[in-house]
Amino acid sequence: MGQPDTRHDIAIIGGGNAALCAAITAAEAGAKVIILEAAPKEYRGGNSRHTRNFRCKHEAPLSVLVDSYGEEEYFDDLLQVTGGRTDEALARMVIRQSEECLPWMEAHGVHFQPSLSGTLSLARTNAFFMGGGKSLVNAYYRTAAALGVEVHYNAPVSHVALDGNRVTRVDYDLDGERRSIAPRAVIVASGGFQADIDWLADAWGPPARNFLIRGTPYNRGTVLRDLLDQGVSSVGDPTQCHAVAIDGRAPKYDGGIVTRLDCVPFSIVVNKDGQRFYDEGEDVWPKRYAIWGRLVAAQPDQVGYAIIDAKSANLFMPTVFPPIKADSLPELAEKMGLPVGAFMATVEEFNAACGDASGFKPMEKDGVATSGIEPAKTNWARPITEAPFYGYSLRTGVTFTYLGLKVDEKAQCRTESGPIENLWAAGETMAGSILGKGYLAGFGMSIGTVFGRIAGAEAAQHVQ
């Protein structure tokens, strides 16, 4: 392998949003930066390729965002989905800094568009990327190239060598050849471990082998495990993750955001035994959609089925795969492999529990609820009666895991003996520092952008 390459000030491990924000910030501060991206060029960008939007605080209309979305409301929304399992100081820092991030993003090539129809009133809270996450990633790579950032693709990192409180070397593979570099600073932005099914199964047990990985197959947690094994402080629960209910026909890896199903609030959801198991009307998807992956994971064979009728067929974002369609409910049950008798009993009990639906409002919680059944449906409860009927299979789709590297407000990593003087982390690999459980739509991009910029600035200051 020879002597390590010492030409670069900063090595950034990973190639998604957080890595790119760090690279651009550091390069603008005068540092010589190299990005080591495990994926090939056509799949660069990690899970950021699949994102659509960025959750942003603002006190007045800002770019495509309307009205205002203050710190307290933003933080309250976060508390609702995390159940209080968050580092308040770090969370509030992300929320406050998100407001200055949006114009920074625009200045570095990202374009925004008004919120998409069917996304349940996000025009105030979430700024949507024109062209989606892939356009954002491409814009950042163009900006990074113009700043002289060097990028190696197909370059998975195998080891980050620690000597006391310093990183001394980074080992990686490139074109089948083992290479080594000795940068003056390192930023880890290589995501979680969700693509390593064995690691998922160690954390969750055998049911995890039935999970689908909606994000990149390259986030295997190699660098995370390597650093944790060397005593770098961790944060988060290995069983906690961003897990949503996705179309059961999605591929094992990299299905992306298009495989998510937004029909749940307007449906009843049953397991393979034809039984309902949770309140489908608890809240609108930006706040509660991420709980459904865990709910489905707890069901037999880790599968669920969302059932709607003709009244609800056009109330949510179109799906990438067409639903199973039938002219009667028994026919739908047969097509979906559900026990007809148990399924029909569930539907009939639900229909009988529905009351006056005249207050139905699909774009907000409407209080149109069932009565006398458990679990109740507390909003959007209308009987499933109008043919044709539609069904979707649901599987647990994991986006990213929350076990990660513990960081402080400067994005710096540490061991029990103190800070590691030249190691920082940003993005999904440290998001567990803020997200104890649950997820808020667009918040991952907020964390990655804020902490990527902080890590880039701190690393550049260190090498200077």
From TrEMBL:
Keyword entries, A-Z: FAD, Flavoprotein, Oxidoreductase
Keyword Zinc belongs to the record: no
Annotated ranges, domain FAD-dependent oxidoreductase 2 FAD-binding: 9-434
Flavoprotein keyword on record: yes
Gene3D superfamilies found in the cross-reference section: FAD/NAD(P)-binding domain, Succinate dehydrogenase/fumarate reductase flavoprotein, catalytic domain
Cofactor(s) required, per the database record: FAD
Top-level taxon of origin: Bacteria
UniProt GO molecular function: oxidoreductase activity
Name under which the protein is recorded: Tricarballylate dehydrogenase
Organism: Hoeflea olei
